[in-house]
Amino acid sequence: MSVLGNLRLLAESAAKRVAFRTPGLRRLAAPSYRYGLEPAELAWLVDTLEETKELGGAVIEIGVARGMTTVFIKEALTRMADPRTYICLDTFAGFTDRDVRHEQTLRGKRGVRFPEFSYNDPKVFARNIARLGYTGVRCIASDVAALTEADLGPISVAIIDVDLYLPTSAALTLVWTCLQPGGRVLVDDVKQGTKWDGALQALQEFSAETGTAWSPIGTKGGVFLRSAPVS
């Protein structure tokens, strides 16, 4: 290693030493779990990506927030040498007024606020992902309810993490029309009694309407697949 490289490593080590020992800074330097999905959900997704490589069709994440799960899955796809397109779909402006009103007026969430995720921006998100060197990422800034099958094309794996009832219901309907036989779906936040339990209601209704059985994964995930036709 060059002298300059060694000096850089020494400087980084010294900065970390200071950060770990300085009140205020040490909290920022402390380790933390960075993902919105649980370990069981992430493990299921890695296995699913491996098992669906031959299906074709894109991998889609609906509801991306800062992109922590995006980075995890893109890193997995990259290490698998998997060329599937990764679609990142989000309003990039938080929840819509319609979706919030539905929770507050029809789902008993009166007085509950939903300010989360309004900080996002599609250009900043795409730039952050590109800066990490990932390619094959397609960002769509839209309400999922405004899209059709033609906007997405075939899907092999879907991650639905939009929390509220209306967008989760719309996402399930859209993904189902695009999902390849053998394709698999993870829906996050399907847990009763939480601020986000609209996702559970939407999944339960979708399951009843389509006759599609789903299984829990971890403490707050639900997964299902589209059965391949019998040969």
Overview features:
alpha/beta, Rossmann fold, seven-stranded mixed β-sheet, 43% helix, 17% strand
Summarize the topology.
Blueprint: H1 3-21, H2 25-29, H3 39-51, E1 58-62, H4 68-79, E2 86-90, H5 97-106, H6 122-131, E3 137-141, H7 149-152, E4 155-160, H8 165-178, E5 179-188, H9 198-210, E6 215-217, E7 221-225
Parallel strand pairs: 1-2, 1-4, 2-3, 4-5
Antiparallel strand pairs: 5-7, 6-7
Structural description of this entry:
The chain is α/β, with parallel strands linked by helices and 231 residues long. It folds into 2 domains: 1-32; 34-225, Vaccinia Virus protein VP39 (Rossmann fold). Helix content is 43%, strand content 17%. The chain is built from 9 helices and 7 strands. It has helices at residues 3-21, 25-29, 39-51, 68-79, 97-106, 122-131, 149-152, 165-178, 198-210; strands spanning 58-62, 86-90, 137-141, 155-160, 179-188, 215-217, 221-225. It has a 7-stranded mixed beta sheet with strand order 3-2-1-4-5-7-6, with helices on both faces. β4, α8 and β5 (179-188) form a beta-alpha-beta unit. α3 (39-51) runs parallel beside α4 and α8 (165-178) runs parallel beside α9. The longest helix is centred in the first third of the chain and has 19 residues, at 3-21.
Order of helices and strands: HHHEHEHHEHEHEHEE
Class computed from helices, strands and strand pairing: alpha/beta
The unreliable regions are none
**Average of per-residue pLDDT values:** 90
From the N-terminal CA to the C-terminal CA, the straight-line distance is 59 Å
CATH superfamily of the largest domain: Vaccinia Virus protein VP39
Strand order of the largest sheet: 3-2-1-4-5-7-6
- DSSP strand content: 15-25%
Overall shape: globular
User: How many extended strands?
Assistant: 7
Number of helices: 9
Share of residues in helices? 40-55%
Oligomeric state, counting identical vs distinct chains: single chain
Cα-atom Rg, whole angstroms?
Answer: 20 Å
Note the main sheet: 7 strands, mixed
